[in-house]
Amino acid sequence: MRSALAYTPGRSPLHRASVGAAVLYLGSLAAIAFVYPNPLVLLAAGVAAALAGFAAGARRAVLASLRLGLTLFIVMAAINILVNHRGDTVLVRGWDVPVLGNTDVTLEALVEGAVLGLRVMVAVLVFGVYSACVDPDRVLRALRPVARRSAMSAGLVTRMVPLAVADSARLREAAALRGPAATPVGRGALARRVVESSLDRAVDVAATLELRGHSLPGRTRPRRDPSRDSVPVAVAGATVLVVSAAAALAGIGEFEAFPGVKVDAGPATLALSALVIALAAVPFAVRRWRERV
Amino acid sequence: MSDPVLRFEGVTYRYPGAAAPAIADVDLAVEQGEFVLIAGRSGSGKSTLLRAGCGLVPHFHGGEVEGELEVAGLDVRAHGPAELAEFVGLVAQEPESQVVSTTVRAEIELPLELRGVSPAARSRAVEEVSLALAIEGLLGRATDSLSGGELQRVALAAALATRPRLVLLDEPTSQLDPVAGDELISLLRRLNEEWGVAVLLGEHRLERCLAAADRVVALAEGRVAFDGGPTDFLEWALERDEALATPGARLLNRAGLGTPTSVRAARRALAAQGVSVRAPEADETPPMRRSDAAALEARGLWVELGEGEERTEALHGLELLIEPGERIALMGSNGAGKSTLLRAAAGLVEPQRGRIRVPRGVALLPQRPGDLFVHERVREELEGEAAMPSLRRFGLEAMLDADPRDLSGGERQRLAISIVIAGREADGDELPGIVLLDEPTRGMDRYRKAELARLGSELAGGGAAVVIATHDVEFATTFADRVVLLARGEVAADGSAKELLTGGWYFSSEVARILDGAAIGVEDGLALLRESLARMRDAAPAGGGVS
After folding, report:
1. Residue B211 neighbours by CB distance under 10 Å
2. What is the Cα B206 distance to its own chain's centre?
3. Partner-chain contact A209 B100, CB within 8 Å
4. Which terminus of chain B has a smaller tally of CB atoms within 10 A, N or C?
5. What is the CB-side half-sphere exposure of residue B101 using CA atoms within 13 A?
6. Cβ distance A124 to A68 under 8 Å?
């Protein structure tokens, strides 16, 4: 079975745009996750990425990323309240435990953990949409003139990941087929077999890459991308990047967890959040408008 | 005559660390536009020879090469596989390892792009190759969504995209159903005739491709044992190594009617002699099978695979009853549901509707028996007292300290079966009620297939129903007493091997096609031919008759 995050060819603006435009578009949403601590803006970036994924037909990738992101969100929030006891609002009064010290659970630590989790969630979501909608072959080809050997290694890894996943599933199944009197297969033995199998596969895949001509001197003549989707995708990405950077410099969307939670939820922050979502929808709206015209 | 497109002169090659050479003292020249078949038993050096023909040996695998080896006039030692790929393409046995791009279009375009071909010329080449191989409908598809047969065609397309003068193929039909296998061979013949591409094809199932070949090269222990035309090859094989001869050639040769290279030639030979055979009157009353004694019972079995939009129906209300001791060949095209049925019986997939029952236990041997070997010694694969009867049953008790990977092909197969059976004995020392083998004949020569058929019969003799999923019609004729043909997740036909493997076009043995369905295998076909020849002799006037 194919992974939910595997690239699936499609005709959406994200699929058809040039690699640079698609990376700029999704990269701008990922940048918000790293730059902004404000949960409203983070939420807007997450909504924008999810909507872009749905609009591009990557529903399975969005849902899988959300599941993974939500798990990480919960784990990070839980870890943060265990390791961070700062903050004015104590939710649960703990004890002073040797080595661990104070074990109070505070609202501020919980919110800080949730914001960290939200950042990771947005990043995972953006990666999921990227993985399902941006053709890795085109990325590697764009990379090849710059770093031929690295592109070849990346090509090998790109192909090896789904093969290793398939081999691992097959070997797990074979382990389940062993009779009750056969020696059980432990995790270590299974992992060793997966590695052995992957190395065998890697040799075959590397031979194929060699035959295709990956080791030839870089004479590639890249195809000029005729897609009209590149411009709106790139413009939307660049605008998100510029607007969010300018807003950050202007102090919009500030957030503080300690000593007390302070979330800037003013009109400017709300406008920025709405703008991020609206700008992310632009390439899809432009495509629809063009199709109608 | 122009220079050969491939030339081996006294070539000996040894893999790194190997004691014996994989190919030894090979002299071989392939001319432009020739279709050459490489025959030989498993391990005879076919794959190594093909890998040497495209430069992977020695550049990729290392090792020592002696002698002269040239592709399109280029010394293979001085030019690597990437350079040689402009003149020679390789299609290997495993389709999954032969695609490196995410989409079919990108895969075909890649070798051209890496050689600096302009985008317009690349687009034209992709269109031409995809039309020639009838895969234009796949161009937009993701490569990891393709079936084995589709992947094989895409790999061939990528190998042909640079318009090489020679294409090398290593058992390309081993994973294909009879229809797809025949189509691939016809396609190669067409490429050979219309494009002038020389073809060097390594195959075990010679009956499938011998008629297309101009020449046959037989390898034995890495050496060229025979090099000549298909008819001469068959005569050589019948004398030296009968398992390499096609069933049709064995049939007619033993009847004294020549050595035909194809079904058509065999039928012509029979017609020229005025031989006509009549099938004996058959009383084919379908046996009544009882569900209370069933080794496997499937009722309205419905299995869907995949998720979301990729969800597909693999089994579609399937009904099947199998009794202990039956020897069944489970056949059908790629994607018909054979593996899914076996996996459902073994409990690896859950049916959405219906039920499947295996009251006396089940053992399933997966497609790659090697996946079951996880330890360094045979004795470590099976533990405790319950394991020994299983090893003893398959004659492996003397190999307890051997590494499973060092065993011969047949021994590996027997060890794999003993691993899946161990401890599943239904009652004391008895076998489980049903033993399932998923496409075990891939890449096997006729000797190993005969060994497998014997093993299957032993298991059936021990009381287990034995079901072998296979694409190999000739193997099915030697093993099965019943054939279940699946199509689109349902049982399309179910009957005796004699009934089902004689009347069709694709799912029919070579002997059956020659004798219009009157016989299924060489032995019963020979009996009919001899009977017919005797009748003709009796009817002929004195002094005349059939020689």
Report:
1. 18
2. 10
3. yes
4. N
5. 26
6. yes
Per-residue CA distances from B74 to B4, B55, B85, B145 (Å): 11, 10, 11, 38
User: pTM (2 decimals)?
Assistant: 0.79
Point out the residue among B54, B89, B423 whose CB comes nearest to the CB of A182. B423
If one compares B144 and A77, the residue with the highest pLDDT of the two is A77
What number is the average pLDDT over the span B229-245?
Answer: 93
Could you say which of A177, A204, A212 has the minimum Cβ distance to residue B97?
A: A204
The helices-and-strands tally (H runs, E runs) of chain A is 10, 6
* Residue B545: predicted pLDDT: 46
Strand order in the sheet with B296-305: B312-322, B296-305, B353-357
Taking contacts as CB-CB distances below 8 angstroms, the residues of chain A near B371 are 170-171, 174, 193
B234: which residues sit within 8 A by CB, 6+ positions away? Answer: B210, B245, B246, B249, B253, B259, B261
Contact across the interface for A163 and B386, Cβ inside 8 Å? no
Q: For residue range B411-441, what is the model confidence (pLDDT) as tens digits?
A: 888 899 889 988 776 555 678 899 999 988 8
| Rounded mean pLDDT, A27-55 | 95
Residues 6 or more apart whose Cβ sits within 8 Å of residue A220: A141, A144, A145, B113, B114, B116
> In the predicted model, what is the mean pLDDT of residues B314-328?
94
Q: Is residue B97's pLDDT more than 70?
A: yes
Dist. CA B359–CA B296, nearest whole Å: 7
Q: Residue A84: what pLDDT? A: 85
Q: What share of chain A is helix, strand, coil (3-state, %, to 5)?
A: 70, 5, 25
Question: Six-digit token pair at A230?
Answer: 């590149």
Min distance B412 CA to chain A CA atoms (Å): 15
Tell me the percentage of chain A whose pLDDT exceeds 70: 95
Question: What pLDDT, on a 0 to 100 scale, did the predictor assign at position A218?
Answer: 63
Chain A nearest CA to B71, separation (Å) = 14
Q: Complex ipTM, two decimals?
A: 0.80
Residue pLDDT, tens place only, B113-141: 888 888 899 999 999 999 988 889 999 88
At A66, phi and psi to the nearest 5?
A: -65, -40
Q: What is the 3-state secondary structure (H, E, C) of B413-445?
A: HHHHHHHHHCCCCCCCCCCCCEEEEECCCCCCC
Binning pLDDT at 50, 70 and 90, where does residue A104 land?
confident
Residue B307 has pLDDT above 80, yes or no: no
**Half-sphere exposure for B250 (CA within 13 Å, toward CB):** 19
Cα–Cα distance for residue pair A45/A269, rounded to 1 Å? 13
B382 interaction partners in chain A (CB closer than 8 Å)? 181-183
Predicted pLDDT at B428: 54
- Report the Cα–Cα distance between both ends of chain B, in Å, rounded: 42
Q: Which two tokens stand for residue A119?
A: 């950042």
**What single DSSP character describes residue B326?**
-
Kindly state the average pLDDT of the residues B274-278.
Answer: 82
In this structure, what token pair is assigned to residue A203? 């040799």
For B532, phi and psi rounded to 5 degrees? -65, -45
Residue contacts between A and B (CB atoms, under 8 Å):
181
CB contact at 8 A, B415 and B407: yes
Instruction: Give backbone dihedrals phi and psi of A187, rounded to 5 degrees, phi first.
Output: -60, -40
Mean of the per-residue pLDDT values of chain B: 88
pLDDT of residue B35: 96
Question: Is the pLDDT score of B310 beyond 70?
Answer: no
For B401, other C-beta atoms within 10 Å of its C-beta total: 10
CB contact under 8 A, B384 and A223: no
Q: How far apart are CA A282 and CA A288, in angstroms?
A: 10
Of residues B145 and B244, the one with the higher pLDDT is B244
CA distance B264 to B115: 44
Given a contact cutoff of 8 angstroms between Cβ atoms, the answer to whether B103 and B140 are in contact is yes
